[in-house]
Design brief:
Organism: Fibrisoma limi BUZ 3
Number of strands: 42
CATH topology of the largest domain: Porin
CATH superfamily of the largest domain: membrane protein fhac: a member of the omp85/tpsb transporter family
Number of domains: 3
Number of helices: 12
Shape: elongated
Protein name: TonB-dependent receptor plug
Keywords: Signal
Strand content: 35-45%
Pfam family, one: CarbopepD_reg_2
CATH architecture of the largest domain: Beta Barrel
Helix content: 10-25%
Distance between the termini: 85 Å
Length: about 850
């Protein structure tokens, strides 16, 4: 009887407990608040928050805020943080409540006691397991994924109101900034917002082959010296804010920083297991780490590892002032990772803070914040490979000012201080002095100045004036249209005049954009200008500064050229760009030049001018390149991992549009850079070509020399202009930058942030006997003809070593010419076997 009663009673109680548990499971309890230091009132980041008696818990964010959601509740909330006393707070039996916590500092500090199991700190076993399993959780291993992304970027000028060491107030720059509208930073000091952007985009990725695409849907930009244009909208998206710590290296400000869970983890870092805490529904190891050498370019911070999966859950890392990064006092990255349905992990929230280094002890500083948040993540379902080209795409209606859209796009509403910053930045950029400064900076960077309502830009500033022995004072005026004129037509051109030769030069280009997706253009150009053999725009490439410099001084082997060009260019996808062109040009020398015609020509007289007609086909393969669209112009943001290959075939068409020669020319180049671990980064370019024809030497290959005091990256820096000619050649240009590997270990040099480098350039080639025979000893008037020199069996070699990042912008190279050191110059310019050259390189 008693047994039956107890059985019924126990059964009833169990059923009641199950009902209560079921009812509680249907309710979600939310506890939120802020954890602060009891003495200072500052937020305590990453404090542990848990319900007493339960494993459920969370941690506070960088500002001390926390939100704990749970279906189970208790009677008290336990809050703890390293260096503070633990505190317990009563929990009310309601669904939503706010509990603000103040933690007093620990009364006593114990000396650190390290207890290691066999094999060292247990953190090493944790990280070793994370590295072993990283292929399982790396989002780059997923067949495909996509999500919506919100990105916000803020930039401020701060630290301008502090008093100087002599007790006086801020300097003139500080006083000027103090007069501008400002907000208050976290330290209570004034800060002037100079840039704020918001971008909403869709991101797509697949693994085989590895492809990434961002489609910028909406963007709004407010800033000093910038416009709400297409280029800025692309740069402020998520493409340049990707931080995957499962990769071996993270590219931050163009610096390769080893990941604490990458292949170099044990070589670069030391680890210590600090604690075990609850993050969301997971219990995580908290592992602290720091570089083995404080001067190394590496992270320091903490990483939280899921104890059951050994996967990333959260991390907080920083790069300090001792690392060799220009203009940066500190970089801090905080990231939250989410588990997807497949088990893989993906960073869903990323905070990046860059505190800039002040140029002088009391000068203003800068602060940049990035925030990125992902939502509506879809796994699998990789798109067709062609879908990912181009890798960065801008929606036609990307500009939107509708406040309701941004209210729904933001993961969290803006704080009152953020709203004030967005209003203040508009006031700052409209200050007359600030507008002038912004225009000046834009002119210096872009080189063009807009003429306002005319929808025309004037420039480039760099080519406006030159002085040389042929033209005397050269004055040039250039114009181009912008998108206000047309989004389909791009017109550009210039006129130039020399005071000595009294000759007008000109150029005009008309380009029509047939399609933007894929990018397809059709263009024509006509020009008439002074050129020099071996130093033309064709072999200088995109080095605009060197091209402007080549217009100064003594011009040897000058000639006038009339150039007519029609071209068609299309980005066909998968990194391929195809170009087809028809070119007709003349060669009218202003120096002693002559050549014998090709065998079989009806007219065998010695001549000193000619015309060529060429069909050009070029294919360029850059699978890892990101292309940006600056209004009507495409700009390469460079490739990070894979080589860029270019193959060009040129066919000379005789008797077509007056062409005098029939010939073929094939040239190929490959450019690449790769990381060599802690040893730095290597850059190299390999090129080769062949011209199996008999032609005047200006139509053969002339390697680019450099007689200036400046170091030029794509030139042979100890070779004179037009020192060698080849009709078949191969070349290698090599540079390795150690990124301060050696200098960072020398105390007196570490603070200078100098970076050591080595270079080497090799050229081998030859000229056929038939091309050597084209040069007569005299022309028709009996004047001696200037010839050319060919390489022998020995290749041309120059090597060098140097230091860059001097005063953060200067580079000095010491160069040695190892071969042809006694080469007599045809033009009379002596050979330089050793030289020191300088250049300017602005980098982080």
């Amino acid at each position: 009887m008693y047994i039956r009663i107890w059985t019924v009673l126990i059964t009833t109680l169990l059923c009641w407990a199950c009902v209560v548990q079921s009812v509680m499971a249907q309710s979600t309890f939310v506890i939120s608040g802020r954890i602060t230091d009891a003495a200072t009132g500052e937020g305590i980041p990453f404090a542990n928050v848990a319900i007493k008696g339960l494993s459920k818990g969370t941690v506070s964010d960088a500002e001390g805020k926390y939100v704990l959601r749970t279906t189970q509740t208790g009677d008290s909330l336990l809050v703890s943080s390293l260096g503070y006393q633990n505190r317990t707070y009563r929990i009310l039996p309601i669904e939503s409540q706010t509990i603000d916590v103040q933690l007093p500092a620990a009364a006593t500090k114990l000396q650190e006691v390290k207890v290691y199991a066999k094999g060292g700190d247990p953190a090493y076993r944790v990280i070793r397991e994370v590295v072993r399993r990283r292929d399982r959780f790396d989002p780059a291993r997923l067949s495909g994924y996509q999500y919506e992304n919100y990105t916000k970027i803020e930039a401020y000028v701060n630290n301008f109101s502090r008093k100087r060491k002599n007790g006086k107030g801020p300097g003139p720059v500080g006083r000027l900034l103090g007069k501008l509208p400002a907000v208050t930073d976290e330290n209570g000091d004034p800060a002037v917002p100079v840039f704020i952007s918001e971008t909403f985009s869709e991101l797509y990725a697949r693994s085989n082959p590895e492809k990434f695409k961002e489609r910028v849907l909406k963007s709004q930009v407010r800033g000093v010296g910038v416009t709400d244009g297409s280029l800025v909208a692309q740069l402020t998206g998520a493409s340049f804010q990707q931080y995957n710590f499962y990769r071996n290296y993270l590219n931050v400000l163009r610096k390769d920083i080893p990941s604490p869970v990458g292949a170099q983890w044990e070589t670069v870092y030391t680890f210590r297991l600090k604690d075990t805490v609850s993050i969301g529904d997971a219990i995580c190891y908290e592992v602290e780490f720091e570089p083995k050498r404080a001067s190394d370019l590496a992270f320091a911070g903490s990483v939280w590892i899921d104890t059951t999966q050994f996967a990333l859950a959260q991390l907080e890392v920083s790069v300090g002032k001792r690392a060799n990064i220009n203009f940066v006092d500190e970089i801090r990255i905080e990231q939250e990772w989410t588990t997807l349905a497949s088990g893989a992990r993906l960073p869903t929230q990323t905070h990046v803070m860059i505190d800039t280094d002040e140029p002088t002890p009391r000068s203003p500083g800068g602060l940049v914040r990035f925030f990125s948040a992902a939502r509506n993540i879809v796994e699998g379902q990789p798109r067709e490979v062609t879908f990912y080209d181009p890798s960065l795409e801008l929606s036609d209606d990307y500009k939107v000012k509708d406040p309701s859209f941004w209210s729904s796009a933001r993961p969290d509403s803006l704080s009152p201080e953020e709203w004030r910053a967005m209003r203040v930045v508009d006031s700052v950029r409209n200050v007359p002095l600030v507008k002038v400064a912004g225009d000046a900076i834009r002119l210096g960077v872009i080189g063009y100045q807009s003429l306002g309502k005319l929808n025309v830009d004037v420039g480039p500033l760099l080519y406006t004036y030159a002085n040389n022995t042929v033209e005397g004072h050269r004055i040039r005026l250039g114009l181009r249209t912008n998108t206000g004129f047309s989004r389909k037509w791009l017109l550009s051109g210039y006129v130039a005049y020399g005071t000595t030769d009294r000759t007008w030069k000109y150029s005009g280009t008309i380009e029509y954009i047939l399609n933007r997706k894929p990018w397809t253009v059709l263009g024509v150009r006509r020009s008439y200008d002074l050129e020099r053999v071996g130093v033309s725009a064709d072999n200088i490439g995109g080095n605009s500064f060197f091209y402007a410099y080549s217009r100064f001084g003594t011009i040897r082997r000058p000639y006038f050229q009339e150039d007519n060009l029609a071209y068609f260019r299309r980005e066909v996808g998968r990194g391929f760009t195809q170009t087809f062109a028809l070119r007709n040009r003349t060669f009218d020398p202003l120096f002693a030049f002559a050549f014998r015609p090709q065998a079989g020509d009806d007219d065998q007289r010695i001549r000193n001018s000619y015309r060529t007609t060429e069909f050009i086909w070029e294919t360029r393969f850059a699978p890892d390149e990101v292309m940006l669209q600056n209004d009507n112009v495409r700009i390469s943001a460079g490739a990070t991992r894979k080589p860029i290959l270019t193959l060009r075939y040129t066919a000379g068409l005789r008797d077509v549009l007056g062409g005098d020669f029939a010939y073929h020319r094939v040239a190929m180049t490959m450019k690449h850079s790769f990381r060599m671990g802690v040893l730095g980064r290597t850059y190299y370019t390999v090129g080769a070509g062949i011209i199996p024809a008999t032609l005047p030497y200006p139509l053969l290959y002339t390697p680019l020399g450099n007689e200036s005091l400046f170091y030029v990256g794509n030139a042979f820096n100890l070779m004179n202009y037009f020192e060698f000619v080849a009709d078949r050649y191969a070349e290698l240009q090599f540079e390795h930058n150690f990124s301060g590997l050696l200098f960072n270990r020398i105390p007196l040099l570490r603070r200078l942030k100098w970076r050591e480098l080595i270079t080497a350039k090799v050229l081998t080639g030859s000229v056929s006997q038939a091309n050597l025979n084209t040069i007569p000893s005299t022309d028709e008037q009996g004047h001696p003809v200037q010839g050319f020199r060919a390489l022998g069996n020995t290749p041309y070699v120059e090597v060098g070593y140097g230091i860059d990042n001097i005063f953060k912008v200067l580079r000095i190279d010491a160069l040695h010419r190892l071969t042809y050191r006694d080469n007599s110059s045809i033009s009379g310019v002596p050979v330089t076997p050793f030289s020191i050259k300088v250049s300017g390189w602005l980098s982080f």
